[in-house]
Recover the amino acids of this structure.
């Protein structure tokens, strides 16, 4: 599925640039990249084409307040709207807006940008919403951002810095790129695997049951929160020259491939998720398995889909396999979507209301 990735604020810009720089060579999915920020210096540091870096409301950010940035974005809305629409090429199936919801710029401007895109681009617009680290005092911005995004975005793909390898407190902007390096690598890797899954550059590599854009769009749906689970492990060595000459193919036996898939799915569901959420509250899910064809054990995949179907609160588990002929790694992605507010989101909203002295 091809995406236009439009980052808002420091986190958003770094994530957008990172996704574009590290998209899988054989499965490219970033159709265009752009960044919007109130901080011109943060924009200068990004590997994003100059004409796709947009500074706005540069005097509003010193307040650190999402409401002030929102007002600045609203008063520049025509310019922002044109820049955003220009950044979405015809080839994009959807728009993804990464942002850190604890920041004034991300929380204040992303909902405005999404609103204008919904008017000008007739494709889904998703937020990739990064929740603040465990010790951040960011609930007021997070509340403004989450409420704005709930109203504006088609769906929010959640990543929680508190569960990723990210700092517990927000570092100074000059240190942010290094401090969030590991978290951003993870986020770009997981989203790249998901959105790239159906994008084999080589037509011969397309699997029987590929993950096309419509399946991801149907899974994310309209409204609600989604989380991604991911598991990747090496299952085979790259074939040596001798193996190739002798057509040596070390296929796993059924028991081994079955249990490898079963374990990988369980890990993606319960251990390696982008944000904590009770899966039984998801109403839709998507299970993607990618890897060497011999390892994509059909029966295991069918059984895994069935148990995921039982675990969620709804009847919709979509699935897709992407066989990778020369691949060495098995990758499992499990998207759970259509959820109402996960606990961490609810508690940020409550803490934000308290800090505003109302609820
Ligand atoms: N994963 C990740 N999180 C980040 C990164 N930078 C910041 N964050 C998180 O995102 C939140 C917002 O930070 P920024 O994106 O820098 O803030 P901003 O949107 O530019 O807003 P202001 O600078 O406050 O105007 C912080 O509270 C952090 O939790 C990043 O590069 N990666
Ligand atoms: Mg900033």
């Amino acid at each position: 599925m091809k995406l236009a990735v439009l980052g808002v604020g420091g986190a958003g810009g770094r994530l957008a640039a990172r996704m574009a720089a590290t998209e899988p060579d054989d499965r490219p999915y970033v159709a265009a990249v752009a960044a919007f920020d109130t901080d011109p210096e943060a924009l200068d540091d990004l590997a994003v084409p100059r004409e796709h870096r947009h500074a706005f409301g540069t005097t509003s950010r010193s307040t650190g307040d999402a409401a002030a940035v929102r007002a600045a974005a609203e008063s520049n809305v025509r310019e922002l709207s044109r820049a955003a629409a220009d950044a979405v090429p015809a080839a994009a199936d959807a728009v993804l807006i990464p942002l850190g919801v604890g920041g004034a710029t991300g929380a204040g401007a992303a909902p405005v940008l999404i609103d204008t895109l919904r008017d000008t681009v007739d494709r889904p617009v998703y937020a990739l919403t990064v929740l603040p680290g465990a010790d951040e005092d960011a609930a007021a911005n997070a509340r403004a951002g989450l409420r704005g995004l709930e109203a504006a975005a088609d769906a929010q793909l959640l990543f929680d810095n508190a569960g990723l390898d990210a700092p517990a407190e927000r570092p100074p902007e000059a240190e942010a790129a290094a401090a969030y390096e590991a978290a951003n690598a993870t986020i770009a890797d997981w989203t790249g695997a998901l959105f790239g899954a159906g994008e084999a550059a080589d037509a011969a590599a397309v699997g029987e049951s590929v993950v096309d854009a419509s399946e991801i769009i149907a899974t994310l749906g309209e409204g609600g929160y989604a989380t991604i689970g991911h598991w990747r492990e090496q299952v085979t060595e790259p074939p040596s020259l001798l193996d190739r000459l002798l057509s040596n193919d070390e296929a796993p036996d059924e028991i081994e491939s079955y249990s490898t898939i079963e374990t990988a799915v369980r890990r993606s569901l319960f251990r390696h998720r982008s944000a904590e959420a009770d899966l039984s509250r998801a109403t839709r899910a998507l299970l993607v398995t990618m890897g060497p064809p011999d390892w994509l054990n059909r029966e295991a995949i069918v059984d895994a889909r069935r148990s995921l179907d039982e675990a969620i609160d709804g009847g919709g588990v979509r699935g897709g396999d992407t066989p990778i002929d020369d691949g060495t790694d098995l990758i499992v992605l499990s998207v759970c979507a259509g959820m109402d507010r996960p606990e961490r989101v609810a508690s940020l909203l409550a803490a934000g209301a308290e800090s505003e002295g109302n609820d």
Observations:
- The chain has two domains: 3-198, 228-339.
- Residues 283 and 314 are 5 Å apart (CA to CA).
- Residues 104-120 form the longest helix (17 residues).
- The beta strands are 3-8, 30-37, 53-55, 94-100, 125-131, 155-160, 225-234, 284-291, 316-323, 329-339.
